[in-house]
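Fold this sequence, please.
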Amino acid sequence: MREQLKLVTDWLLQASEQVGPEYFQLPVAGAEEPEYRERVYCYELYHRWRCHWDDDFPFSLGGEIDKSGHPLIRGAAKPDFLVHIPRHMTNLVIVEVKPSNASAAKMTADLKKLTSYRRDLRDQNGLAASYYAAYFWVYGVRVDQWPELRSRLLAEIGRSRDFDPELVSCFLHEQAGSRAIAVRWK
């Protein structure tokens, strides 16, 4: 799965460069400044990412798949993006997206969700079916702001066993037209 993950990640990073300013921050009638709107950003990122997909690639890209009522997944999670093979528990990557102005509480909830999808899923036979990778994707944060945001998030989570930074990769998408980059938790 390593090769498939590399390919999917490359497509995602290429897609990030193609997100225009009106999707990165939505111009709002009557407002002086455009606003971060996660759904608008995600829909455009999904579209751009999907445009890179090869027709014969075995994994499918899904957006906001409602997992409530799923026989093998507890809770009512709606991950922003899933790359998997539908009808099978063959799971490549889960992605959660947050704008820079999201609260630390919302961001840490996503980090816990990502950790859970990496280590807690089992198929109907009790075999591990967790996602091969998990990406925490933050847009509107400059790289030089990452150490402060990272510290805030780690302080918010504390010593919770519900988050494992070894299981979650983080990407920052600084601005429209730029390529997102991977950053480290340590």
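The helical segments are 2-17, 21-24, 38-50, 104-119, 146-157. The chain has a mean pLDDT of 88.
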